[in-house]
Write a structure and sequence with these properties.
This protein has two domains: 138 residues, no CATH class; 76 residues, Immunoglobulin-like (Sandwich), CATH 2.60.40. It has a five-stranded mixed β-sheet. Strands 4-10-6-7 form a four-stranded antiparallel β-sheet, with no helix packed on it. A three-stranded antiparallel β-sheet has the order 5-9-8, with no helix packed on it. By secondary structure, the protein is α+β, with helices and mostly antiparallel strands. Strand 8 and strand 9 form a beta hairpin. It starts with 26 loop residues before the first strand and ends in an 8-residue tail after the last strand. The chain contains five helices and 14 strands. Helix 1 packs antiparallel against helix 2.
Length: 258
């Protein structure tokens, strides 16, 4: 005969452990300059990077942080503190922020010579001399020579099957270089262009969440945030992110006056 229970009854049952929800917080957004001419990187677009390799592939890298301040953030976040992801906005435009064309004479050593890291590879023009001092040959990239950014320089290498016949050939090389010093605080602050319907600089803050689904809450602009106007804009943007969220502006102190 079955047993019947009367009144209250308690029992135990194993419960599955729920997966915790990981919240992304304190995500850095940095607006500044990067050597994007070395990797064909983006200009005035938020770029998401979750690790060092992604950041360098998107922005390039240089240890000259006074020129390329985004690289300081890349090194600090990923190499020193393993803190990511980060959002980067580069405002350095290799088609706009230029020093001007220059021409140098180089003699290959083992089929190789070097140009400055700031040289824009797409602007390089290479010519060769005849036996005297007349420029008689115009060489073509990919056929006669190739270019690579490596170890802080732009390396030119002779292609053996090309028209540069000697490993010690004398070349006339014309090129243009980026000039990060020409980036202004106005470009860091940014704005909205009604002609192009595009935002720039810190005006891109509100486009991060729709694009990547994360909220940047720490705003940085090394080398520029010591300026009171830049600092004020950063603080204002941090107080109203997408009309819903708030963050903080990390302002640099001017060590020459403090």
């Amino acid at each position: 005969m079955s047993n019947y229970y009367h009144g209250a009854k308690a029992s135990k049952q194993a419960t599955s452990v729920s997966t915790p929800v990981v919240a992304d917080s304190s995500i850095h957004l940095i607006v500044g300059t990067a050597p994007v001419h070395t990797v064909g990187g983006k200009i005035n677009e938020p770029v998401y990077a979750s690790n060092y390799a992604e950041a360098v592939a998107a922005m390039g890298y240089s240890d000259e942080w006074d020129k390329y301040d985004i690289c300081e953030e890349i090194y600090s976040s990923f190499k020193l503190y393993s803190n990511g992801p980060i959002i980067m906005v580069n405002v350095l435009d290799p088609a706009k922020h230029l020093k001007g064309a220059e021409t140098v004479e180089k003699t290959l050593a083992g089929g190789i010579t070097e140009l400055p890291y700031e040289a824009v590879s797409d602007t390089v023009e290479v010519k060769g001399y005849d036996g005297e001092d007349s420029l008689t040959e115009t060489y073509t990239r990919g056929e006669d020579y190739d270019l690579f950014y490596t170890d802080g320089v732009l390396r030119l290498e002779r292609i053996e099957s090309g028209k540069i016949k000697a490993d010690n050939a004398r070349l006339n090389i014309k090129f243009n270089s980026v000039d990060p010093s020409k980036v202004t605080k106005k470009e860091i602050i940014g704005g909205y262009d009604t002609n192009t319907n595009k935002s720039s600089g810190f005006e891109l803050v509100d486009s991060v969440y729709p694009k990547y689904g994360v909220i940047p809450t720490l705003f940085l602009a090394p080398n520029f945030s010591t300026d009171s106007e830049v600092a004020a804009i950063m603080a204002a943007k941090a107080e109203n992110i997408n009309g819903l969220f708030t963050g903080k502006a990390i302002i640099d102190a001017d060590t020459e006056t403090v």
